[in-house]
Amino acid sequence: MKNTNFIKVFVLLLFVSDSSFAIPEKKPLGDVIIQWNTIALKASKKAKQNTNFTTRTLAVEAIAVYDAVNSISHIGKSYHYTGKTTIDASTEAAAARAAHDVLVKYFPIQKSVLDSALFISLQGVTEGQVAEGERIGAAAASDILAMREIDGSLPDIPYQAPGNLGLGSYRATPGLFALGISQQWGRIRPFLILSGNQFRPVPPPELTSATYKNDLDIVAEIGSVSSTKRTLDQTHIAQFYKQDAELTVNEIARLLAQQHGSTIEETSLIFMLVDIAEADACIASFESNYYFLFWRPVTALNTEIDGSISKGYAKFSPLVSTPPYPSYCCGHCSMVSAGLEVLKKFYGNDNIIEIHSNTRGEPSRVIKSLSEVESENGQSSLYGGINFPFDIRVADEQGHKLAQYILKTWYAN
């Protein structure tokens, strides 16, 4: 059944004082979106995509799915594809085929597994003409794939710091001392924001400032692998949230869509906006990272006053292995804050859900609000010793502003 009033309801509710959108009565066919979101994440991680490329994959997949569903249900404006159908096409088949075709394009080695998943999805279709739905889904996928084929994400360019580095400058960190990843990412074409530097934060604090010295002391005290100040729960938080940011946000999106019984139209829109917010936040945070090239705590806490590094990085070791890119601002934090900001607008802040981590041995966490997840996720980078508190503060602000801009832009017309 088509829900032609769906977008109109959301547009009206966007500007009311209540911080969340009311969810009307619905026919819950949104499971196909949830299933293919899970498949997309598994395919990406099996292919060993890092967070940057995974957020891009998820955004492209979600856009294809939304445009396919929208072409049939006409719930609002399209992202790009504007195909038409004159018969009662299946939205479920369209969504599944759109997701499948995007993933096969990006992960051709996994085609047989993805083909099997599509077959299972189509067997479960409960409404509409399957063949016509597939045609729409294939066309929507082809459209966005062509649009994103040349967007600056390739070639993937590592960063190697120059030989003469001053205090405060990023350099390779212990572990593998790997080159910085994907320095081009802040310059790729965004999905809905205008450019990677649109939400660039103010510069990090001066090394001589009270803010910097205080925050450095905090990391040294609570982020060390041998810290006696970090509580057991704080250690669990550090380990739980060290997984890629998109895993946390997309699991929460799936749980909320199921909990609220969202329709296929609602779910397709929400997942598209969430995954676009994460992808654009990834672009924005990496633009900041490589613009400021600010050092990581492990470097700062092992550097002598003359700029030399203490032998073997012996002074300070973080609880969590430091990611191979600059510190300012916390990309992990920006992405989670952006994704959750979108979810708050649709489902509200207060939701009791049980979330999980791919960190081996870490128990699930029952949370009572999305703000709680955001706070724990941000603090995890501090407890893990990989970010300064000021990295986290500006990243959360960046994520919020970016998500609010995306929502305002989407509903502007």
Summarize the structure.
The chain has 413 residues and is mostly helical. It has helices at 6-14, 31-46, 51-73, 91-106, 111-123, 130-147, 210-222, 232-240, 245-259, 264-292, 297-300, 331-347, 370-383, 389-410, and strands at residues 350-355, 365-369.
CATH architecture type of the largest domain: Orthogonal Bundle
Helix tally? 14
Following the backbone from N to C, one meets helices and strands in this order, namely HHHHHHHHHHHHEEHH
Q: What does the average pLDDT come to?
A: 91
Count the beta strands.
2
Sequence of strands across the biggest β-sheet: 1-2
Percentage of β-strand residues? under 5%
The structural domain count equals: 2
Q: How many angstroms does the end-to-end distance come to?
A: 25 Å
Shape: elongated
Structural class: mainly alpha
Helix content: 40-55%
Mind telling me the CATH class of the largest domain?
Mainly Alpha
Q: Which fold name is given in CATH as the topology of the largest domain?
A: Vanadium-containing Chloroperoxidase, domain 2
Summarize the biggest pleated sheet.
2 strands, antiparallel
Radius of gyration: 22 Å
Ranges where pLDDT stays below 50 over 5 or more residues in a row are: 1-28
Structural summary, described in words:
There is one protein chain. The chain folds into 2 domains: 26-147, no CATH class; 185-410, Orthogonal Bundle (Vanadium-containing Chloroperoxidase, domain 2). Helices cover 53% and strands 3% of the residues. The protein contains 14 helices and 2 strands; from the N terminus they run ααααααααααααββαα. The protein is mostly helical. Strands 1-2 form a two-stranded antiparallel sheet.
